[in-house]
Design the sequence.
């Protein structure tokens, strides 16, 4: 039993899984969701981390039942890619929407029951309910899935008004179960999704938000964008190269173009993607990246929502994202194959000034406050010295305990050094210091300003400034100049930390007006948005406690700017040394000597060096074969086989097509289409270098291959030479080495 209410999958369920999807077992929670769909028990909301297999949950039921799954998605490019991928695995799939040029023909075939999976846009769903109702009877609609369901909620990071109308699905298709899916949803957003889609008897299933294979890192921007980015590269034959497929996100079109040009001038092959480009230009950039023609794309956040490329090894943000949820969604494009990947943010505080500026167009006071809170949370994550993974996960789950270990993020690597046993219960040695006196001074100054200013006025007041921003009555107060021994940098850093820890709060102040009443902005029609700060209830409680007892402590981890303030009369934090600071560090941790996890990926002991060498040679040849096959078939390389599958092929080295399907990721249909070419390459390499084959665990070695009918269909597509060799190995029982030797005339 996978849970108290869900029986284990039967052999027929696992057979469908292997034959059409290439998996030997369901991943965590997949079967729970699928079982409920197959039994029509209820509506469901599934919140599943990227890479945990959401798409299988809505593709599988119709394939197993020979029905139709209707999938609503806002991402046309993703729909096109998934249709291609399903077709390559022998699953009849189609899409309807603005990208479909054969709508009439596709709709006729749908009525005849030709397809198993139908992708539609939300606009199509709303405008064509009668057609969907017809399909319930004619095609046997098994399920309606609403992908990217967070788009329903105005409290999510990617609200789309067209999604708000999808309640028509429940009203128009009362007997069809609805499955809403998303990778990013806070409890508030989950409630909004269920309410907006009018889900009935809804079961909400939330998997872990943790992506343990992603390493998180933050670095400060320097004056050289190219210098910052090349710090993440290696020199290969005298040229800068990233270590795998890389997306570099930029905050604006201008920055995108600047970095793209700098890369090209430095000999880094790359393409560019932003909304200012024409549709053909954007499509060409997208195609080159997902087809592995280039390994680097420089883009605004307009790129990526519609890609399903599993082998992105690095995500770089050159500039902070607008909030935690956007950041989580964007880094979710890395490491979808489960292999280690790195996510680096280069930022400076001015990035958040820009984000706040764009909030000037928000009219709803409650939504404006929500966006400000989201901004502050993300700035805290980037500026903090604690575990970044845990801070990220606790945005979605307040009791998340993942993280706090070496190989998790840059802060944890600094904290734990080479200690690999650190975990949730590890001893905290974060360098926290008591800032109660300084916090009381700043909070008191903010109270004096009565919530009418940002942080700058209270700081100027404490430093004894005569600046016009400090009101004359404020200059007459006793505390004017009481904090002049600390720098402006110190007070700003402390102010930010007090905001991150909720002692200070931020409110939208509206559009700033220049003298004479005109709006002051950064361009015509763009008023300059400003915010004010106030002391929160938590801050007031601290001030009361500190007034009663000056021994009250307020411990914070100091920033570099605060560490520089070493005053003899404030010894609580004067002893913070540079040793606690952050040094230049590598992005991925060193490979451990034992079976420890690196970036959450368990690394097995290294094989014999000779074996490792030949695995690498075979993997390289498999990559080249995949590229040729993808060009022949007109699909993305990862649809032919993921990097993870190629690595497993190089390790297991199956000797026949029957054995090939025992490799995770190889479906029966793929084995029929091009399995012999893979086996032939492995055979050649095995013979040439005297390598062992069929290195499977005992239970996998006997995996069943194609049926007799499927085998005959496969043989019909082979050349005479291929057919002869296949029959020698798979029917006559010759070893791969013997068959290859006979073919080469060696015996």
Sequence:
């Amino acid at each position: 039993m996978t849970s108290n209410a869900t029986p284990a999958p039967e052999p027929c369920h696992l057979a469908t899984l292997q034959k059409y999807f290439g998996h030997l077992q369901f991943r965590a929670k997949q079967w729970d969701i699928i079982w409920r769909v197959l039994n029509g028990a209820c509506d469901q909301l599934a919140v599943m981390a990227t890479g945990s297999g959401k798409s299988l949950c809505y593709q599988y039921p119709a394939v197993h039942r020979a029905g139709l799954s209707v999938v609503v998605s806002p991402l046309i490019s993703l729909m096109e890619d998934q249709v291609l991928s399903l077709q390559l695995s022998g699953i009849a799939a189609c899409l309807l929407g603005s990208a479909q040029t054969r709508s009439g023909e596709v709709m006729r075939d749908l009525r005849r029951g030709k397809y198993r999976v139908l992708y539609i846009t939300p606009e199509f769903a709303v405008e064509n309910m009668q057609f969907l109702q017809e399909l319930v009877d004619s095609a046997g609609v098994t399920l309606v899935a609403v992908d990217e369901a967070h788009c329903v909620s105005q409290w999510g990071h990617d609200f789309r008004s067209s999604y708000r109308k999808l309640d028509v699905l429940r009203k128009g298709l009362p007997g069809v179960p609805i499955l809403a899916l998303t990778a990013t949803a806070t409890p508030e957003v989950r409630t909004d999704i269920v309410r907006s889609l009018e889900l009935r008897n809804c079961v909400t299933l939330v998997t872990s938000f943790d992506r343990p294979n992603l390493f998180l890192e933050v670095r400060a921007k320097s004056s050289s964008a190219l210098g910052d980015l090349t710090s993440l590269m290696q020199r290969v034959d005298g040229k800068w190269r990233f270590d795998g497929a890389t997306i570099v996100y930029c905050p604006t079109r201008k920055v995108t173009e600047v970095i793209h040009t700098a890369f090209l001038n430095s000999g880094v092959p790359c393409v560019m993607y932003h909304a200012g480009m024409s549709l053909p230009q954007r499509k060409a950039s997208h195609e080159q990246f997902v087809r592995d023609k280039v390994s680097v794309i420089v883009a605004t956040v307009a790129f990526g929502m519609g890609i399903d490329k599993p082998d992105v090894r690095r995500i770089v943000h050159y500039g902070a994202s607008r909030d935690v949820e956007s950041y989580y969604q964007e880094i979710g494009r890395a490491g979808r194959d489960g292999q280690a990947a790195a996510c680096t943010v280069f930022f400076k505080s001015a990035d958040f000034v820009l984000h706040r500026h764009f909030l000037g167009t928000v009219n709803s006071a409650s939504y404006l406050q929500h966006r400000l809170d989201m901004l502050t949370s993300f700035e805290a994550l980037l500026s903090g010295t604690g575990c970044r993974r845990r801070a990220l996960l606790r945005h979605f789950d307040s009791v998340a305990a993942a993280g706090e270990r070496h190989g998790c993020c840059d802060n944890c690597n600094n904290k734990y050094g080479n200690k690999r046993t650190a975990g949730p219960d590890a001893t905290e040695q974060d360098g926290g210091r008591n800032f109660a006196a300084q916090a009381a001074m700043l909070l008191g100054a903010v109270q004096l300003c009565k919530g009418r200013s940002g942080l700058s006025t209270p700081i100027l007041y404490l430093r004894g400034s005569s600046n016009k921003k400090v009101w004359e009555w404020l200059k007459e107060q006793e505390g004017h100049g009481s904090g002049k021994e600390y720098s402006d940098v110190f007070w700003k850093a402390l102010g930010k930390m007090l905001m991150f820890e909720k002692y200070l709060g931020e409110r939208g102040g509206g559009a700033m007006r220049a003298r004479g009443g005109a709006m002051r902005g950064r361009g015509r029609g763009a008023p300059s948005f400003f915010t004010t700060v106030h002391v929160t209830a938590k801050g007031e409680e601290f001030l009361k406690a500190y007034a009663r007892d000056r021994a009250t402590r307020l411990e914070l981890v100091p920033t570099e700017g605060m560490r520089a303030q070493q005053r003899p009369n404030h010894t609580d934090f004067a002893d913070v040394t540079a040793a606690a600071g952050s040094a230049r560090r590598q992005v991925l941790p060193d490979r451990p000597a034992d079976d420890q996890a690196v970036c959450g990926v368990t690394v097995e002991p290294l094989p014999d060096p000779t074996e490792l060498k030949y695995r690498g040679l075979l993997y390289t040849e498999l990559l080249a074969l995949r590229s040729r096959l993808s060009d022949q078939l007109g699909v993305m390389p990862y649809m032919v086989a993921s990097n993870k599958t190629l690595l497993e092929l190089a390790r297991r080295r199956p000797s026949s097509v029957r054995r090939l399907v025992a490799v995770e990721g190889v479906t029966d249909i793929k084995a029929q289409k091009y399995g012999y070419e893979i086996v032939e390459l492995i055979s050649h390499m095995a013979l040439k270098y005297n390598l062992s084959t069929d290195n499977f665990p005992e239970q996998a070695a006997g995996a069943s291959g194609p049926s007799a009918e499927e085998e005959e269909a496969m043989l019909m597509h082979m050349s005479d030479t291929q057919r002869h060799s296949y029959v020698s190995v798979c029917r006559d029982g010759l070893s791969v080495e013997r068959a290859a030797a006979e073919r080469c005339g060696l015996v």
